[in-house]
UniProtKB/TrEMBL annotation:
Residues 28-130 form the DUF4440 domain. The lineage of its organism: Bacteria, Bacillati, Actinomycetota, Actinomycetes, Kitasatosporales. This is DUF4440 domain-containing protein. Pfam families: DUF4440. Signal peptide: none annotated. It comes from Streptomyces zhaozhouensis.
Length: 149
């Protein structure tokens, strides 16, 4: 028996996925709200190449970053495409724009320059019924690669 499948999300799934990405961007400095948008075993590789595995490790990494001058670095995300791998797995290709609000003189130490002002952000999202997020989609993996030059 053959089942017709398309890699294009339904309008409802696309809206829910875009809402999840927007929420992740909006909550980037909110330790209480960002980690729950991720699966318990999520893997996140940040702009600087640091890999964090698991929701609890993500929360700890966020607390550490927000207690430093990195709290002044914010981002905005622009979704370029959404593709379903399966009906319950989506890949989101986007561009992350980085806004470095750190002062070079801040605490007497110069801020370490960021590798770039934008990056390619790829999300792998999974649908988990009852997750309580946009359309029950959660972030399973996120990778940001700086765009150099």
């Amino acid at each position: 028996m053959s089942t017709e499948y398309t890699d294009v999300p339904t309008p409802e799934d696309e809206a829910a996925i875009r809402r999840l990405v927007a929420d992740a961007s909006a909550y980037q400095s909110d330790v209480a709200r960002l980690p729950p948008l991720h699966t318990a075993d999520a893997t996140v590789v940040n702009f600087g190449g640091r890999r964090v595995v698991g929701r609890e490790a993500l929360e700890a990494a966020m607390r550490q970053a927000l207690a430093s001058s990195l709290a002044e670095v914010t981002t905005t995300v622009e979704v370029e495409s959404i593709r379903l791998i399966r009906p319950d797995v989506a890949v989101v290709a986007s561009v992350k724009h980085v806004h470095d609000g750190r002062s070079a003189e801040g605490d007497g130490e110069g801020a370490t320059p960021l590798p770039a002002s934008s990056g390619r952000l790829t999300y792998v999202l999974v649908r988990q019924e009852g997750a309580g997020t946009a359309g029950d989609w959660l972030i399973s993996a996120a990778q940001t690669t700086p765009i150099l030059g």
